[in-house]
Amino acid sequence: MEQMSLFDAMPGSGNMTVPLASRLRPQKFEDFIGQEHLLGPGKMLRHLIEKDQISSMIFWGPPGVGKTTLAGIIAERTKADFINFSAVTSGIREIKVNQIISNPAGVMNQAEAGRKMGKRTVLFVDEIHRFNKAQQDAFLPYVEKGSILLIGATTENPSFEVNAALLSRCRVFVLKALKEAELLRLLQNALLNPAGFAGQRLEISGEPLRAIAIFADGDARMALNTLEMVVLNGEITTDGCIRIADEGLAQCLDKKSLLYDKAGEEHYNLISALHKSMRNSDPDAAIYWMCRMLEGGENPLYIARRLIRFASEDIGIADSNALTVAVAAYQACHFLGMPECDVHLTHAVTYLAMAPKSNAMYRACENCKEDIRNRTAEPVPLILRNAPTKLMEDLHYGKGYRYAHDTEEKLTDMECMPDSMRGVRYYYPTEQGDEAEVGKKLQEILIWKQTHRKFED
Question: Which of 243, 295, 386, 434 is the 20 to 30 Å CA partner of 325?
């Protein structure tokens, strides 16, 4: 574990063996690109830093947007010691309180000793969401005492991944993916910076830079690493110039590694986007979100299972064939797998998006479950019980039951609800698709039963 300024360990600009993204890491606000909503003139985070009023905080954002760099700049600007602590490489032993007490060189003891001498310590915890609750709890007493200013960085929603006690003591700042124009500025700076490619003769136009910016998809680190790869694979001319040819550029941009964590928030964001696009009868958006998931490595069977759910939750009897299509798509995915099954998912997604919509099944189910939770568990009416034994017959199980198939209408006016729930309804058909006809039929049945009960009374 090191205590240092983030920039003390930075390689010199002449060390070209270090990745470009590390060589060009900004050391002051003026060089930092992006996050204008936090760092622009008059914005909250900038104001707090300039007034030296920072407190513990969490930086939440996708990879490559400057979380680590920003923490280092804050430490440098506020003249604090900077401790870089990674949840990936550090274990519970380094932060357990009992071991910290017995280990004077421990992270927190270092910070506490510094505080007593009037020195502040910024403890930067990268990937803080990878720590479990017990590990996160170990930071609490030191945050409360002011021994450390904790800056946690996470790509996951801190509401779910950072325990509530620690989260309540931190401000959360959301960092955004860089815009295309910001990435272009970053790439152009790399060409002009002495730590970048200022000393090399390059033939590269704006179009390749724009292609790299689009490919990076908001990730500054990916943009710089891609530029470096493109330059290293450039064609060297007879006069020593490096020319960026279309073929070399295409090879470096051949496959985009999409931001997609199948166990994380983006997983749920994308499936939510797919579901809501189908619900809104937008097949193009639905296909887009589905393909985003597949390209990110999602299991096609997961998507197919969600389509089956959608077929009943959002379509139901308005088009019962939707369920058949969704189940068939699941079977196709099971038989074929990727990449062949993508067209079957596209088929199902398009059908579901264009089908008439009804949430009557969903509402009926949810309302019924709510009643079950809030009412006493009513006994099954005797008329509906089977009587396989003489004792049950003597107790009037099944007495008065009428077999619907024995009637001309295939229907009786027998009450099937418990007495306390007579007249309660859950299913209210909509006017969408086939459900309109189902609604008419249900209304006829209700009127027939009501009429015959009055007649019998």
Answer: 295
